[in-house]
Structures are given as structure tokens and as C-alpha cells.
Design goal:
Bound molecules: NADPH dihydro-nicotinamide-adenine-dinucleotide phosphate, (2Z)-2-iminopentanedioic acid
CATH architecture of the largest domain: 3-Layer(aba) Sandwich
Strand order of the largest sheet: 9-8-7-6-10-11-12
Mean pLDDT: 98
Number of helices: 16
Distance between the termini: 29 Å
Low-confidence stretches: none
Structural class: alpha/beta
Radius of gyration: 21 Å
Number of strands: 12
Largest sheet: 7 strands, mixed
CATH superfamily of the largest domain: NAD(P)-binding Rossmann-like Domain
CATH class of the largest domain: Alpha Beta
Shape: globular
Strand content: 15-25%
CATH topology of the largest domain: Rossmann fold
Length: 446
Amino acid sequence: MQKKISGFLREIEKRNSHEPEFMQAVKEVAEDLIPYIIKQDIYHGKNILMRMCEPERVLMFRVNWVDDKGEIRVNRGYRIEMNSAIGPYKGGLRFHPSVNLSILKFLAFEQVFKNSLTTLPMGGGKGGSDFDPKNKSDSEVMRFCQSFMTELFRHIGPNTDIPAGDIGVGGREIGYMFGQYKRLKNEFTGVLTGKGVSWGGSLIRPEATGYGTVYFAEDMLNYEGNSLKGKTVTISGSGNVAQYAAEKCLHLGAKVLTMSDSNGFIFDKDGINEDKLKHIMFLKNVKRSRISEYLKKYPNASYMRDKKPWGIKCDVALPCATQNELDHIDAKNLIANGCYCVAEGANMPCTIKAISEFKLNKIFYAPGKASNAGGVAVSGLEMAQNSLRYSWSREEVDEKLKQIMINIHRSCLEYGKEKDYINYGKGANISSFIKVADAMLAQGVV
Ligand code: NDP
Ligand code: 2IT
């Protein structure tokens, strides 16, 4: 079996050498899927996984814009249209200087499986740019977004490809891109999700990824007769996902000890309560400042520059910042300190070796494609509301989100139960694969 898996990965590597993040995402999926596919007559010999590893289309384009000093800047824009077997391409846009083809292909590949798990009709895609929104004025961000959309608009549409936010792309950027799309097409449609509530957005979309991650962690603990109430939680990141993961932890009675950004983390041993979290939201969303400023208002907390929060003792860890932010040393530290549940709010935050440590030590571990699917799920609900030209209440959307997370948990159990461990990764990979593979088989070789 190992030979078959390595043979497959060698083939993929030939076409995708120099794309380490993409290869990492494929490896993680192939190790669960190849043994499954070999045993299933309908999938065996159809080269389905190989087809799923090749994007249906990759768009790369120049994005010129003029900064506040009048200088012309050049960035690169991308959209990976990965798989449209079960619906139009759907997935976020990331604006970060580290963005490259490998990172966007890994994200688009993961998105295909994640979207399938939501049970909503969405294919997978991802895009973005190496543009860095940090330290840019509002007008610079607007001019960049308009220029980016001036190329992207011809490739997307409410029945073709529906982008949303991701790192560096929040409500402000979605607004500027939506405005430019509407102006170019003279159409008011649901072409982007994460829109403002007064112009077609869904209630709970900003909260959905973080809330969904915590609902999933709660489902995992409930399954063992436990819950988040009274538990200590470490969170990384202080952006959209981290903020609402922290908020839902507080709703469920847990104590949040840490939050971070790319410069370091804060540790508040008294717990980050609702007021403190509000202050973090102000620092990050309004002031667009650094997490270290938390100490100016709360001097009893500590700040560790250039460090990650995984050395802090906790029951539950929620990595909510970025890929490969939790390695096997961090995993060993967490386990040594008594952590027994890890749910990924970010995409691929745990390295393959870190995941092996969790499995070896029988730690509850939820892969992002399952635990952070709440964000795209509510994007799917936003699309449904746009098609209906109607909007659901906060309670209705939250209830649907909760039910979707419960169903994803159930699918993971169906295919991931092992003798004395629930392999959530395997469960998520197999159950999401079946839906996409069946659709691909039905639609022929296209
Ligand atoms: P935001 O841009 O709102 O926040 C990102 C956070 O992560 C910031 O605190 C940022 O710190 C930190 N971060 C980013 N890059 C790095 C890095 N290289 N090292 C350390 N910290 C870093 O993004 P989101 O919260 O939306 O996204 C966070 C993660 O969640 C990503 O992996 C994303 O793909 C995933 N995700 C997002 C969804 C969504 O709906 N938004 C849905 C599903 C998954 P700093 O301010 O210093 O950059
Ligand atoms: O990684 C993700 O699932 C997202 N960034 C959200 C995608 C979406 O279309 O809402």
C-alpha cells in the first residue's frame, strides 16, 4: 500500500515540484484515500484522485495600482478554479505577501473537500494576491481592490465562481471588490460572499468560521460525555476566525488564555473575558494595530515576542492563524501539558508530523476542512438567500450553522471510527471524497 501511495505522490510531484504546501495537502489526503479507493470497485482504475489534484483552471494576472505618493505598484493576482463537480467554484481570496501558487493550490484543494462536507452545492476554488494590506491607507486598499477586480470580474459570476474573504480580506475589501464588479457588469448579484448585511450579506457570516470551529470542538467533547464548560483554551491569531472562536468559547463557559499575531502572543492568566475581547476587536479591526498593545490596557497579561502560544498549559488548543503554525515540537509540548483536543480554525495549521503526534497520543484532532467549514457553509447560506432575494434572521442562520457542524461531525464518525480512536482526518477525507467522486463519475471525463 505504501508503495502505491508513494508512486502516486511521485506522479503528482513531477507536475508540482517547488509547491511544498500543495504537496503537503495532497499527501495528507492521499494517505487516507488511496487505501479506500483500492477497495471500491466503482472508483478503482478511474484516476479520480489524480484528476482532483489538477486544477480545472489556473488564472494569474497583473494588478497595477497607484499608491498615495503617486507611484505605480505591481502585484500578482490569482484565482485557482479547482473543481466544479458539485457546484460553482467557491472559496476565499487571500491578500498577504506570502501568497504564491503553492499556497493557493493547497487552499483550493482543501476547499473542494471542505465544501463537499458542508452538504451544500459548492465546488472549490481559492485566489488572492501577494498584496500586503498592512500599513496601506483606505484609499490604497480601495484602488488595489478595484484593479484586482477589473481583471477578475470576467472570470467569476454567481453561477460560475463566487469568491469570499480569507487572510487580509474582510468586510472592507469585499465591499470595494463588490462595488467594482457591480460597476463593470451593471449587475447586482451574489457574486461575492461576506457582503455587508444591508447589501446582500448574511447575518452570522463574520462569526461563522470561529463559531463553527468551537461548535465542532464542543461536538467532539460531547461525544465523550465532556464539554467546553470550565476548560482552558489557547487560541492563535487575532483576526476574524480567532476573534469569533474566542467569543463562542466564552459563550460556552470556557476560559481563553491566549491570542496572537505574526509578531507574538499575549497570555492572560485571568482569562480574556468579553470586555477584553471587545478591546482586541477594536485594536485589530478598527485601529488595525498589533496584539502587543493589549498590555497597555491590561498590564497583568504578558506578551511573548516572536513566540507561539503552544507552550501554555491548556485543555483545548485552537490554531486560528495560518498554515504550518503548529509543528511536532509544539504538539509534544501541548500533549505534555495535558492538552487533549485540537480543532483547526485555520487551514492546515498543523504540520503532518504534529498530526502524527496527536494520533499517536490519541488526542482529539479535527482537521480544518471539517472544523472550519462553518465559514464557507454560511457563505453557501448567503448564496441561497441571495437567490431567494430574502434574508434569514440571526437565529435561523446560527441554527443552520450548528446543524451543519453536527452533520459534519457525524460524517467524520461514519468513516473515521477506528478500534480505539476517532480518526477525524480520515473520516473527513473519505466522506467528502465520495460526494465529489460520484459527481465526477456521473459527468464523464471532462
Ligand atoms: P485575518 O486576516 O482576519 O487574520 C489572520 C490572523 O492570523 C492575524 O492575527 C494574523 O496576524 C495571523 N497571521 C497571518 N499570517 C501569519 C503568519 N504567517 N504567522 C503568524 N500569524 C499569522 O484572517 P482569518 O482570521 O480570516 O484567517 C485565519 C485562518 O483561518 C487562515 O488560515 C484562513 O485560511 C482560515 N480560514 C478563514 C475563513 C474565513 O471565513 N475568514 C474560513 C476558513 C478558514 P497579523 O495581523 O500579524 O498578520
Ligand atoms: O477557507 C475558507 O473556507 C474560507 N476562507 C471561506 C471561503 C468562503 O467562500 O466563504
